[in-house]
Structures are given as structure tokens and as C-alpha cells.
Specification:
Pfam families: Tautomerase_3. InterPro entries: Cis-CaaD-like (IPR028116), Tautomerase/MIF_sf (IPR014347). This is Tautomerase cis-CaaD-like domain-containing protein. It comes from Guyanagaster necrorhizus. The longest helix has 16 residues. The chain is elongated. 20% of the residues lie in helices and 29% in strands. The chain has a single domain, classed as Macrophage Migration Inhibitory Factor (2-Layer Sandwich), CATH 3.30.429. The chain is an alpha+beta fold and 80 residues long. It has a three-stranded mixed beta sheet with strand order 2-1-5, covered by helices on one side. Strands 3-4 form a two-stranded antiparallel ribbon. Strand 1, helix 1 and strand 2 form a beta-alpha-beta unit.
């Protein structure tokens, strides 16, 4: 079960943006045979005072963490 977490500045993406990203991520896995309900995408909004790069607070970031459980994707699969 793939689990994608997007750490983003507060307000970076609209609800529609998040839905579009989640749908695109899900399609990658559907193409290789996973059911849609296996794919989990979370958007975690982080305030400036809680995200530091090089010791300084930042709002210029997107951090993505992906965990795959029980599935290997062929190298030819690309995320769009």
C-alpha cells in the first residue's frame, strides 16, 4: 500500500490542487494493477515556525515522503 506524504507550507495548494495531485499519484499505481483504495496521499501543512532549512525558518519547500508496502514499481513508471 503506497503512502505519500507531502509536507508543504500552509496554503500552498488549494483543495482542487490537492485532489489533482492525489488523483495523479493514484493513477500511477492503478496502471500497474493496484486498486485505487490502496493508495493513500496526505498533505501536511507546516507553518513557517515549524520548518527549518539550514537553521532558518522557511516557506519555500515541498518535501515528499513515500512508503511502499508490498509493491515494487518498474523503473519505467514515472510520476507526472
Amino acid at each position: 500500500m503506497p503512502f505519500h506524504r507531502f509536507y508543504v507550507p500552509q496554503g500552498l495548494y488549494s483543495s482542487g490542487d490537492k485532489r489533482s495531485i492525489a488523483e495523479a499519484v493514484t493513477e500511477v499505481y492503478v496502471k500497474v494493477g493496484l486498486p485505487r483504495f490502496y493508495v493513500v496521499v496526505n498533505f501536511i501543512e507546516v507553518s513557517e515556525e515549524n520548518f527549518y532549512v539550514g537553521g532558518k525558518s522557511s516557506t519555500d519547500f515541498v518535501r515528499i515522503s513515500i512508503h511502499h508496502i508490498a509493491r515494487h514499481l518498474p523503473s519505467r513508471v514515472l510520476f507526472v
